[in-house]
Structures are given as structure tokens and as C-alpha cells.
Design goal:
The strands form seven sheets. An eleven-stranded mixed β-sheet has the order 2-4-3-7-9-8-15-16-14-10-11, with helices on both faces. A four-stranded antiparallel β-sheet has the order 18-19-23-22. It contains 18 helices and 27 strands. It is 27% helix and 18% strand. It is globular, with a radius of gyration of 27 Å.
Length: 684
């Protein structure tokens, strides 16, 4: 039997002697691999979803949850994680692939509902609210074959755009430079992606909470046009402008991720307003096919001068701070941007400096007769936010047999709890008052909340559509295909100000972040490509074309690759059939034997659905420990022993450890078992 490719085999004990080596043709590195490269390795039988998930779990144990650097980016892992991975392997072995994301592990922000996990948004007040079902986005990822690993840490209730500190887990650390902010509020999603704890993640943005963390951690991040990715059953901070978006190490991988969730959801909060707000434009989809025509050649890109430290030469009558404020710009950020600008020009693009006219601003006075942004001021904004919080809380607390009155009582009780890092309440009494109106006997008589359907929302989004049209008309007059500028021109280790809050957030236009260099301390910098509403695909293509010529992303030194992440293998047209079924069990108890330097711990289990158990590798808290491995002659059971000193060292002296056993049989099937056990020093 030929040895498997897995480099852990060199450190594990093999029961197969005299194996002939296969010709090594293709190099694989998980840290730099694209989605297509991972799928090719899986299709060739060189990698399984079970193995990939286990690598990510070891990386999380080593770099995120134990010891240094303790990045703290993962909030919760799904309890059926390995079952999902095994099923993906079983389907692939039977000839079924659900799509480009088949078997690919991902995380979503802690505000997303995953069936069986808390939908907490990072707050202790909601840590007991277990989602009864997946949110629409997670359900679509599952349909596309993705393995849902769990939720990423975030700023409590998405309150900060500068940092990500939750009540449940504390602060997320920057993936590249300790002491530098990870950005917020989707810092966990960005750090987990940058440090390779999952292949990709999803974040959420109110002000800059996808763009900012992507920039801080040197990854590709995408803010979609409002409503272009469904957000039902996701906790909102400000539903008037909250959006969801993907985050990945490679811009090219976002295409398949975005296509997996490019579906209109009739229950999405944005659904009632989309016919108006799309302005007759098609719902963005078809990213993967579109990138074949991605190019910078012949494109004209505009750099907003005030975003790179230039004073507006002619502000015009009625100009506001949204069009004239000069962003403080670090010389190093500007130098990186100028280098990127030269790369764009070398690829055939025309890059010109432009300045926004006074009426391309959400605060420009359009007169009393023009539609107004009525959802942006109290009390209407409070009633609008209350609608989102009411719907979300009802979804999470509803149980069979609830009446309107009992449901309202549970919602009010939960809404009254503190949901801020300082003990403050995001859902205050005024907002609760909007959620329900009550009669003399505390019965529910109605609600004062506002959804996207009433006239107030229609007026608001009509106003935003008109403001967006002004921006787009200006771009057309300038002949611009897109805007491009640094994500954050003047950031310091702890503070930043993301460019384009007014046109991007207030006008709800799309943007894609691309890494473009580093600061002297090692923190990455990024640029963003921004375009017209619902032209998400066209903007994305420009970002992808830039990535192809720039290739500026670099791996973080804080979470270096593990030996098994790099290997060589032979590409196969048809992989060997694998059962994908569990092949071992792991005993819950561990036996200690010997004394002193000879002390060992023993693990044992049964062999199931396997002709020939081949390898067993053992990890403790993500670190490999040397093992001696044997199996019974009847191939029904196995045992492995490891030096107690190695186990205690890997566990940093802790009495409770988390061993992970990875097994491989002669047919290439893999299995992973995990247990939490107590280790006691043996007597003797």
C-alpha cells in the first residue's frame, strides 16, 4: 500500500512497510492556496474535508485559544463540525459535489444565527438564545457544500468600528502586530481569515466593519450594495444600512463565495424596498463567470483627492464636510498607494485624481420639497431599529404554545438586559416602548415599529436613490469606471478613520478591499475599489484584476504554517473511492502508566468500518505529541501511548487537556476524534 501524502505520516507510526512512493507533481500550501487549488487537492484524494477541518482546529488551538499569540478570534464552534466534514467527504467519494465550496470550512460573525448555537452578538445577555434554525445566508452556504465551523468573535452588539471586544470572549487581537487594533466590529472574522483558522468568513458592516478589519488584517473583504446579500435572522445594529459581506485571503475566492449566497430572500428585511432601490438594475450574481473578463486595461479609475491628503481646489457653493474634509494621510500609506497606482497604470488603466462636487453628499441641502432621509432621525429611526430588534428577539425566544402576550413578555425581558461592554443597554426603554403597545391588563394591542414597507421607508430610500444617482451621474461625467483609494489613510496602531463613509455607507454602494503592502511595523495596508449601486460584479472584477498584477498579500508571522499544511501530490482525474465513514472510536478515559521520565498516558478505542488502520497521530491543544501505536490482531481495537512529559508540555501544565486523534486507513479514509480529559501524574 502506498503511503499517503500527509506529511504527518513522517511523524506518526506506520503499519505499512515497504510502500512505494508516488511521483510528486503538484505543490500545495494551505496558507496561499486558492479555492480552486484546495478543490483540486480534494478531488485528487490528497486532502479531505476532515483533514482540513482538523488542521484548522489545531491552528485555532495553537494560535487563537491557547498560549501566544492568543488572537481570540473564534467565539463558538459548531458541535457537529466533524459530522459536516465527514458528510462532505462521503458525498465527494460517491461522485457528488454540491459546488465550489464543497467541503470548505468557514466562519460567520457572532451576530449570525446558526442552528444550535447562541445568537449572542458577543453579549452575555443573549448567550442563552439558541438559534432554532440557520439564517438564510448560512443555509445557502450549507447548500453550496460549505462546512460551517462556527462563529467569529466581534465587538459586543457591533458597537465599535475601531476594535472587537465582546463581553463573552474579550478582545480580538490583530493578526499581524500585537498591540495594534484588529478593527471592528467584524475583527474576529478578519483575524480568523488572515491567520488561517478557516478558509473564509463572513462579517457585517454598519459604518466600516468589513472594510476596516479587512484593511487592518491584510485580507480581501467585500461590502455589497445594500440588500444584495440577504440579512434575515442576523442581529442588526442599524438596519437602515447594515450589510453582510465575505472576507477571504484571496480576492479570486470571493467569486464562488458570493455566488453561493446570491439569492433573493422574500423574508429578508430589505425585500420590500428592493424594487425601488435597485432602480431597475439586476440583482448582482454571476461573479465566478464574470472574472474571466476581468481587466484593468482601458479602465478609468478616480482617486478622491481629499482621501489622500489633498485640499479640495474648488469646493463649490453648499459644500459640506462630507466632500471637503481632508483625511490625514501617513506617508507610508501614501507611498504604498502610489506604488499600487503605478501597477494599475502599467496594467493599462488610467488613474486620475478627482474631487467630489458639493451635491454628491448625503448632507447637501436639496430643499424641503425633495425626499428626505427620514429614517436617519428620531423618533422614526428608533421605531425602525425597534422593528429589527423585535423581529430578531421573537425569532430567538419563540417556543411552541406562545401567545402574542407571552411572546412579548419574553422579548421585553430579554431586551431589557445590558448589551454593551460598559453595562449599557442597546435596546432601551424607549425602543421597547416602540416594540409593543399594551392594554390595561398588559395585553398586546399593537406595535409602533416601522419596517422597510411603510411610506417613511419609501421616502427615505427614494432620497438615498436620488443621492446615489448624483454620485453616479458625476462618475459618468468624469468617465470613471470606479473609484479607488486607501481604505484608511491615517491609521495609527489604535485609531483609524476609514475613507468613504459618506458615499459608501450613506449611498449604499459596493466596494472590494485588496491588500497592497505593509507599514514599517508589519501591519498590512489595503486599497478599495468602489462602484455604482448594484454593480457589485463590475467593481469586483476590477479588484480581482488588480490582485492578479499586484500580489501584495503576505502571511502573518504570528500564526506560522504547520508542517502538514505543505505537501506534494499527484493530480488525479478521478479520486479513489472513499467511504467517508468513521473508522475509529476514542476511549473517554486515559490510563497513566510508569513513573518519572518513563511515565506515559494511553489512549485506546475501537476500529470501525475499516479494513486496515494505517496511521494514528495525536495532538494536545493543537501541538503534536510523539506516540507509539498498535492495533489488535483482529483489527477491532487500537491503542496509542505518549510520554506524559510531552503531553503536559503541550498542555502548558494544565490538568485537563484536549487530545485530538487523527486516524487514516489503508484506503485513504480519515477520521478525527476529540476528548477533554484529566491527566494525573502516576504514582510510583
Amino acid at each position: 500500500t502506498a503511503r499517503r501524502w500527509l506529511l504527518t505520516a513522517a511523524l506518526a507510526t506506520s503499519l505499512t512497510a515497504g510502500a512505494s512512493a508516488k511521483k510528486l507533481e503538484t505543490e500545495f500550501n494551505l496558507g496561499t492556496a486558492t479555492l480552486q487549488e484546495v478543490q483540486l487537492a480534494m478531488d485528487s484524494g490528497a486532502l479531505t474535508s476532515v483533514e482540513l477541518v482538523n488542521i484548522y482546529l489545531r491552528r485555532i488551538a495553537l494560535y487563537d485559544q491557547n498560549g501566544g499569540p492568543l488572537l481570540n478570534s473564534v467565539l463558538f464552534l459548531t458541535p457537529d463540525l466533524m459530522d459536516q466534514a465527514r458528510e462532505a467527504d462521503r458525498l465527494r467519494a460517491s461522485g457528488t459535489k454540491l459546488g465550489p465550496l464543497h467541503g470548505i470550512p468557514c466562519l460567520v460573525k457572532g451576530s449570525y444565527s446558526i442552528k444550535g448555537l447562541p445568537t449572542s452578538a458577543g453579549t452575555t445577555a443573549w448567550s442563552d438564545l439558541i438559534a432554532p434554525e440557520d439564517c438564510f445566508l448560512v443555509a445557502k452556504l450549507r447548500e453550496a457544500g460549505a462546512v460551517i465551523m462556527g462563529q467569529a468573535n466581534m465587538d459586543t452588539w457591533a458597537n465599535s468600528g475601531q476594535s472587537s471586544t465582546s463581553q463573552l470572549k474579550g478582545a480580538v487581537k490583530n493578526a499581524y502586530v500585537l498591540g495594534t487594533t484588529a478593527g471592528g466590529s467584524s475583527g474576529g472574522s478578519a483575524v480568523a481569515t488572515a491567520a488561517n483558522f478557516a478558509f473564509f468568513a463572513f462579517g457585517g458592516e454598519t459604518g466600516a466593519s468589513i472594510r476596516g478589519p479587512s484593511d487592518r488584517n491584510g485580507i480581501a473583504g467585500q461590502r455589497p450594495t445594500a440588500g444584495a446579500i440577504p440579512s434575515n435572522h442576523i442581529v442588526n445594529l442599524s438596519p437602515e444600512r447594515d450589510v453582510c459581506g465575505p472576507m477571504a485571503r484571496n480576492v479570486g475566492d470571493i467569486a464562488a463565495i458570493r455566488d453561493a449566497v446570491a439569492f433573493e430572500d422574500p423574508e429578508d428585511p430589505w425585500a420590500p424596498i428592493l424594487p425601488l432601490f435597485t432602480d431597475g438594475r439586476p440583482f448582482p450574481k454571476g461573479f465566478d463567470k464574470a472574472i474571466d473578463s476581468a481587466t484593468l486595461s482601458g479602465k478609468k479609475l478616480g482617486v478622491i483627492g481629499t482621501y489622500i491628503g489633498m485640499t479640495h481646489p474648488n469646493p463649490g457653493e453648499g459644500a459640506t464636510s462630507n466632500t471637503t474634509t481632508v483625511m490625514e494621510t501617513r506617508p507610508e500609506v501614501l507611498a504604498n498607494f502610489n506604488a499600487s497606482r503605478a501597477q494599475m497604470e502599467a496594467a493599462g488603466a488610467t488613474v486620475t485624481t478627482v474631487f467630489l462636487p458639493p451635491d454628491v453628499s448625503s448632507t447637501f441641502d436639496r430643499g424641503a420639497e425633495a425626499p428626505q432621509r427620514v429614517l436617519s432621525s428620531q423618533p422614526i429611526s428608533g421605531r425602525f431599529t425597534a422593528h429589527a430588534h423585535k423581529a430578531m428577539t421573537e425569532f430567538l425566544v419563540r417556543t411552541p404554545g406562545d401567545t402574542l402576550d407571552t411572546l412579548a413578555a419574553k422579548v421585553v425581558a430579554k431586551a431589557a438586559l445590558p448589551t454593551g461592554n460598559t453595562g449599557s443597554r442597546t435596546i432601551n426603554d424607549t425602543m421597547i416602548g416602540y416594540m409593543y403597545t399594551f392594554g390595561p391588563n398588559s395585553e398586546v394591542t399593537g406595535t409602533e415599529t416601522l419596517s422597510f414597507a411603510p411610506p417613511e421607508a419609501t421616502e427615505h430610500y427614494t432620497a438615498l436613490r436620488e443621492i446615489r444617482r448624483k454620485l453616479e451621474a458625476w462618475m459618468d461625467a468624469e468617465g470613471l469606471d470606479a473609484l479607488v483609494f486607501p481604505v484608511d489613510s491615517g491609521k495609527t496602531p489604535t485609531v483609524g478613520s476609514v475613507n468613504g463613509r459618506d458615499p459608501i455607507n450613506a449611498m449604499h454602494i459596493p466596494g472590494t478591499v485588496v491588500p497592497n503592502g505593509a507599514l514599517p511595523d508589519g501591519e498590512p495596508t489595503c486599497v478599495i475599489f468602489v462602484g455604482k449601486g448594484y454593480e457589485d460584479v463590475e467593481v469586483y472584477k476590477l479588484a480581482y484584476a488588480f490582485e492578479k498584477v499586484s500580489k501584495n498579500r503576505f502571511s502573518t508571522p504570528l500564526a506560522p504554517e504547520l508542517p502538514e499544511e505543505t505537501f506534494t501530490y499527484t493530480v488525479k482525474k478521478a479520486p479513489k473511492k472513499k467511504s467517508g465513514s468513521p473508522i475509529i472510536t476514542l476511549a473517554a478515559k486515559v490510563k497513566n502508566t510508569g513513573a518519572g521520565s518513563e511515565a506515559t498516558i494511553g489512549l485506546s478505542g475501537k476500529i470501525v468500518k475499516s479494513k486496515d488502520l494505517d496511521y494514528v497521530s495525536v495532538y494536545v491543544n493543537g501541538k503534536r505529541v510523539p506516540v507509539s501505536f498498535t492495533k489488535a490482531e483482529n483489527n477491532k481495537s487500537w491503542t496509542a501511548s505518549a510520554p506524559l512529559s510531552a503531553v503536559q508540555s503541550a498542555a502548558a501544565g494544565a490538568k485537563s487537556v484536549f487530545p485530538t486523534v487523527e486516524a487514516t486507513d489503508g484506503e485513504g479514509n480519515t477520521d478525527v476524534k476529540m476528548k477533554t480529559i484529566k491527566v494525573k501524574a502516576p504514582v510510583g
